[in-house]
Amino acid sequence: MKLKLHQKEPHLDGDIAITGSKSESNRLLLLQALFGNFKIKNLSNSHDSQVMQKALASKEKEVDIHHAGTAMRFLTAYFAAFEGRETILTGSSRMQERPIGLLVDALRELGADITYQNNEGYAPLLIKGKKLTKSTVSLAANVSSQYISALMMVGASLPGGIEINLIGQITSVPYIEMTRSLLTQLGIESSFEGQQIKIKPAGAINVSEMVVESDWSSASYYYSLAALCDTAKLKISSYKKDSLQGDSVLAELYQKLGVKTTFEGHAVLLEKVDQPKPKRVEFDLANSPDIAQTIAVTCYGLGIACDLYGLHTLKIKETDRLEALKAELTKLGAHISVTDKSLHLEGSTNFQSDVTIKTYQDHRMAMAFAPFGLRASILFEDAEVVNKSYPDFWEDLHTLGFKINEV
Ligand SMILES: O=C(O)C1=C[C@@H](OP(=O)(O)O)[C@@H](O)[C@H](O)C1
Ligand SMILES: C=C(OP(=O)(O)O)C(=O)O
After folding, report:
1. What residue ranges are annotated as transmembrane (predicted)?
2. DSSP for residue 382
């Protein structure tokens, strides 16, 4: 589906309800399958959470998790420890290019029986579930924190718990902390000191309900919209000040880009502030990689130069996000260069109109570029990609007054 988003006057006023964080939801779905009967409130309506639910309920040998990175990584560990279940875990063609070897090696160290069906280091995997007998493991920590979260959650179900020794720089740390906090809320003890994580085996879980905070990565598109407006008053819900999600750093980062954040109960009010624009900004996003695309497009729309660092994981996400950003921002008129871990954009306002953005099967390519509709009309190929994390995205933009039509 190709969509045209027509240029809109840069004034926004409205309320948007966003569903639960897909990261928290997919963790809680796994923890629910492992440990018990608690209810999950405000579950994400993302496709990634739907495939996670379906996979956990499946009795089939082949389980297809499509594009969902968390589902792929969490379920590899889950099925490896599922005694007697034989599973072929597969995903989309892109998922078959996203590395899983470090996690498979770690699980094999614990005693797992996993073999590659096609290419060494990549899905599809044949997983012969068995009792994992060991409880100490080590792995490189600079590729994906999802491997570590997977080991932590499944590790809590092992009789001896798990001790994870992390090698090298640890990436996406808030996601590891999120996993730990959810385990703590379920009464599972853990420690994370230096390069070592220890998880105690879970006891009886006496929690009847877990409430998911709404998704901060999805909130990033409203931060970008507010920043690109002359006047904006956007209320998004349901959020809390002490979030488990690292992307809540948006409130701090967007201050520099002219957005004021006020917590009003469970809602967050985003307002455009009339302040001098910086010429150049610099951010390290190693702890919040999913908002890199949003920030790059905001800066371009504001005519602010930016240097974004800590982007070493972007090449192995839904697409190579660094190359995709470079290609699509260049089409809009930007001067941009990328390395394998950083992005550098010059401040210019040479905006091109009616450009068609390729989305590369990456939800965030569509959503991050949408706020540019406050600068010029813009078109999106395969606009339905947003379903991966935020199926209501285009409808929500429509309620804010954007004219959107299929072309
Ligand atoms: O654990 C999680 O829920 C996630 C961790 C991050 O991945 P990496 O740790 O691979 O950077 C993030 O990009 C992804 O969207 C969700
Ligand atoms: C990278 C992402 O997801 P995943 O790795 O879970 O596919 C994302 O949502 O931006």
Report:
1. none
2. T
Verify whether residue 290 is a known catalytic residue: yes
Confidence at 382, pLDDT banded by 50, 70, 90:
very high
Ligand at shortest distance from the CA of 313 = 1
Q: Identity (one letter) of the amino acid at 35? A: F
CA dist 224 → 159, 288, 300, 323, 386 (Å): 46, 15, 11, 21, 16
- Residue ranges of the alpha helices (H) in 332-402? 363-369, 393-399
**DSSP-assigned beta bridge partners for residue 192:** 197
3-class secondary-structure state, position 99: coil
**Homologous superfamily of domain range 22-211:** Enolpyruvate transferase domain (3.65.10.10)
| Same-fold call for 3-17+219-406 versus 22-211 | yes
Cα→Cα distances 326→171, 330, 342, 378, 381, Å:
23, 6, 11, 17, 17
pLDDT over 70 for what percent of the chain?
100
Pocket test for ligand 2, best of 18, 52, 70 (most atoms within 8 A of CB): 70
pLDDT band at 37 (very low <50, low <70, confident <90, very high): confident
Whether the pLDDT of residue 349 is over 90: the answer is: yes
- CA 66/CA 255 separation, integer angstroms: 36
AA identity, residue 10? P
* Catalytic choice (290, 320, 362, 396): 290
Q: Give me the CATH topology for the region 3-17+219-406.
A: UDP-n-acetylglucosamine1-carboxyvinyl-transferase; Chain (3.65.10)
Q: Which residues pair with 261 in a beta bridge?
A: 270
Q: For 374, which DSSP code?
A: G
Task: For residue 172, report the distance from its CA to the centre of ligand 1, in Å.
Answer: 7
